[in-house]
Amino acid sequence: MLKLGVNIDHVATLREARYRGRAHGEPSPVAAARQCEAAGAHGITAHLREDRRHIQDRDMWQLREVVRTRLNFEMANEPEIVAIALKMKPEIVCLVPERRQEVTTEGGLDVVANELALTETRKRMNEAGIEVSLFINAIPTQIQAAAFVGAQFIELHTGRFADHFAEAAEREAELERLIAAAKQAHALGLRVNAGHGLNYENLPLIHRVPHLVELNIGHSIISRALTTGLTTAVQDMLGLMQDYRG
Ligand code: PXP
After folding, report:
1. Residue 105 has what pLDDT?
2. pLDDT tens across 166-188, in order?
3. What CATH number is associated with residue 234?
4. Residue 246: inside a domain, yes or no?
5. Which of 3, 104, 155, 216 to mutate to test the pocket of ligand 1 (most atoms within 8 A of CB)?
6. Helix or strand holding residue 194 (H, E)
7. CA dihedral sign of residues 56, 30, 85, 186
8. What's the distance, CA 230 to chain centroid?
9. 214 CB under 6 A from ligand 1?
10. Hey, which residues are catalytic here?
């Protein structure tokens, strides 16, 4: 079964727009996480950025307390954030780029250029019982490097596929890249997640990508929730995912 991880950063973005710098405010990403889980989501993802632009430290700690499924702590490979994750012990961390020099040309983590530093963090996380995922583009050298790092998962960056969804030729080319990347990663023993820009319109085509374990989806679910409510938004997405054959 293809799993759904809901990224609740956008709930915090809305709160920070009004309550930045205050220790309270609505809407609550923690309440949203509970509702997503109750609606059937298989995991909750939150990104504690170095600049704290949306999720705050208190959110992460509260999420650690209330999340009953699987907490995916999205983060840059930076000492301050690594230390927080090691203390918090989420089930999994997803390492993402936040700085220009960590980013490949197409937006994912540059694992090739940062292999040593990523391997070091991967080992420390694994020793603490935390699984590690690397957010990367569908580029063969990056996938190979992710295997060298010893990551348990990669998360394939679906942003370009989503961006080009309206252009058939580009969309097909991106899908083919994702399909090849998933096959390569699977053959290397990596488990494969995917995310970024996935929505109710483009999701059906993602069924063509094999070996997927989990999709991480934020913006489209939180946006739909404004009109349908979060429970329905999550359930609608789960409905679109349920026939995935792997
Ligand atoms: N995966 C990763 C690594 C992300 O950073 C994000 C949020 O930017 C997502 C998935 C979810 O993307 P979206 O909000 O476009 O669904």
Report:
1. 73
2. 999 999 999 999 999 999 999 99
3. 3.20.20.70
4. no
5. 216
6. strand 191-195
7. negative
8. 19
9. no
10. 47, 74, 196
- Buried-exposed string 4-32: b where 16+ CB fall within 10 A, e elsewhere: bbbbbbbbbbbbbeeeeeeeeeebbbbeb
Residue 106 within any structural domain of the chain:
yes
The Cα 26–Cα 91 span in angstroms is 27
At 223 the three-state DSSP class reads helix
Query: pTM to 2 decimals?
Result: 0.97
The closest residue, in CA terms, to atom 1 on ligand 1 is: 195
Residue 17 forms part of a structural domain: yes
Largest separation between any pair of C-alpha atoms in the chain: 48
Q: Domain span at residue 98? A: 3-241
Quote the pLDDT of residue 106.
75
Ligand 1 centroid – CA 161 distance (Å): 13
66 inside domain = yes
Q: How many domains does the chain have?
A: 1
